[in-house]
Design a protein that fits this description.
4-stranded mixed beta sheet; 20% strand; rod-shaped; 47% helix; two-stranded antiparallel ribbon; alpha/beta; Trypsin Inhibitor V, Chain A; 125 residues
Length: 125
């Protein structure tokens, strides 16, 4: 590329062989402007196509401390699913209260991801 530009500058300074100057100018424009522009536009198209192929994402809401029904409707509104991960016997909590959740609140996940809460149950059941 530097060689082509050197030839172009040299022949332009001398002012001779206009056909050669025109040819070298066309080659330089093609190599330094047209080919990179084509490569960058194809790269931008590929990036856009890859981004569109990703599933939509949502943020996991806080469901700790809520009862199961309320958490279920809150997660459904956020396009997420719910499946009980574990049940614990917690004395001071009302049965059906969510103690913890996986993934944690605030994380970005794909829509339709299953959120696994741990809920409290009666200590005598």
């Amino acid at each position: 590329m530097r060689f082509i530009l050197g030839l172009l500058v040299g022949y332009c300074i001398r002012g001779k062989q206009r056909l050669l100057i025109g040819t070298l100018t066309a080659i330089a424009v093609g190599c330094f402007i047209v080919l990179p522009a084509i490569a960058l536009s194809l790269l931008a198209l590929d990036v856009r196509r890859e981004r569109l192929s990703r599933p939509p994402q949502t943020t996991v809401p806080v469901v700790d401390g809520l009862n199961y029904k309320t958490a279920q409707s809150k997660l459904r509104d956020a396009n997420l699913n719910i499946r009980i991960l574990a049940e614990r016997r917690e004395l001071p909590l009302e049965p059906g209260t969510i103690i913890a959740q996986t993934p944690q609140a605030g994380e970005r996940v794909d829509c339709g991801t299953v959120i696994g809460p741990e809920i409290s149950i009666n200590s005598w059941s």
